[in-house]
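Entry 14. Structure prediction run on the chain below.
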Amino acid sequence: MTENRLENPASMTSLVGGIINDAQQLIRQELTLARREVQEEMNKAKAAAIALAVGAFITFFGGVLLSLMLVHLLHWLTNSMPPGFPLWACYGIVGAVFAFVGLVMLYAAANKAGAINLVPRQTVESMKENVQWIKNQT
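Output returned:
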């Protein structure tokens, strides 16, 4: 009676071998998926860094010209009314305003960079499911 319950050892070996092969193939596919997800996140980070650098470069030169114009405009406006601001004070006022705006922009860029996730969430979840499936098969 016990012989009827036991399966052929060759078929049991091939079954276990098939499960192991399936598990290996599944792990390879998950690693490939993880590589793709990490590469996608790296591409996003690269694009964000390039856009940030180009934007900062253009903004810098535009800011220099704009700040010079604003300094002289402020000096002209205040000198039309006594006692007026000296030129150095106008440079200080405009410089402080630009420094504040620049800090706000840097803070916003740092928050966006912090939102980039290099951990492949889909792959981690899928691997957890696969491990559970493998445990249930053995």
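The chain has four helices and no strands.
Filed with the rest of this week's runs.
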